[in-house]
Structures are given as structure tokens and as C-alpha cells.
TrEMBL record:
This is Dna-binding protein. Residues 69-91, 131-157 are annotated as: Disordered. Signal peptide: none annotated. Residues 78-91 have a biased composition (Basic and acidic residues). It comes from Cryomyces minteri.
Length: 157
């Protein structure tokens, strides 16, 4: 039995909410089972790559320079490993690796590990840009600095 067999149970037989069997099939393909047994819709890799390349508006050199600053080191949540490095700072280092590995941003050149991190970057940036208007206006705010650690300079956008 398919993990997604319950999807058919939520569609009323007389009023389908999908325009075609293909649309339903695409939804089934997009659903992923989580450890709790619930389902969530996951963006495909092409969408993640496109959004990453739109949101990360700093190049590798700019991000390297930023991550070397005191401002960068002091913004965000510290990792649990006792290193003192923030989660965003670590993410920024991974972003630099991704940018340097594939400077032409060829979607075929990314490894799955790259796309997995890109997915985190997209989720973080979108969530914080939607919630925190301050990041776009105040370059001294923690929001602005934290987003920069994740490769997004709100002043450039």
C-alpha cells in the first residue's frame, strides 16, 4: 500500500479539487512522509536551486569578507557543540563552498548535499524576510546581520 493512499480519501468523489489525474499525481509525488507520519509538501530541487540563486545575493568574496567581521560572529544562535560559532555563520561557510564549486550556477553541477543545504537557506531567508521588516531597513539589526550570514544582503534586494 502506498504511503499516500490517504490522499484519495480527502478528495470528494463528486467535486474533485484537481483538474486532472496528472495534477493529483504531481501532488502525490510532492508529498513526503515525515517521521511523525504526517505529510508535507516539499519543493523540487529545481525550485530550490532557482530560489537559492535569487535569495543568495552575495558572491563568495563578499560573504567571506562578511563572515570574517566581528558583526557576523555576534549574530544568530550559537551551535550546541561549544565552538561559539553561530548556526548562520556555519551556514555561510557552506554557502561559500557551494558558490565556489559552481560559479556558473549550472543546476546539473550541484550535488544532493548542496541542494539539501540550499533548501535550508531558502527556508530560513524566506521565513525571516516575511517576518522581519526591520532587516530591510536597519543594517544594525540582528535580523539584517543574521540574514547576511545566510548569504542575503537585504540592502541589495
Amino acid at each position: 500500500m502506498s504511503h499516500f493512499s490517504g490522499v484519495n480519501n480527502i478528495i470528494p468523489p463528486r467535486r474533485p479539487c484537481f483538474s486532472s489525474p496528472e495534477a493529483l499525481s504531481r501532488l502525490r509525488d510532492a508529498l513526503k512522509q515525515t517521521s511523525t507520519g504526517s505529510c508535507k509538501i516539499v519543493k523540487d530541487n529545481d525550485t530550490v536551486i532557482k530560489e537559492f540563486n535569487e535569495l543568495v545575493n552575495m558572491n563568495a568574496d563578499e560573504l567571506t569578507e562578511w563572515l570574517g567581521s566581528d558583526e557576523s560572529a555576534g549574530s544568530g544562535w550559537s551551535k550546541d557543540d561549544g565552538s561559539g560559532e553561530t548556526i548562520g555563520h556555519e551556514s555561510g561557510r557552506k554557502i561559500i563552498e557551494i558558490l565556489k564549486k559552481n560559479p556558473k550556477k549550472d543546476p546539473q553541477e550541484y550535488e544532493q548535499e548542496d541542494v539539501d543545504h540550499m533548501r535550508k537557506v531558502v527556508a530560513y531567508c524566506k521565513r525571516h524576510l516575511a517576518q522581519e521588516e526591520k532587516a530591510k531597513q536597519d543594517t544594525n539589526s540582528k535580523s539584517y546581520k543574521s540574514l547576511k550570514n545566510w548569504g542575503h544582503d537585504a540592502q541589495k534586494a
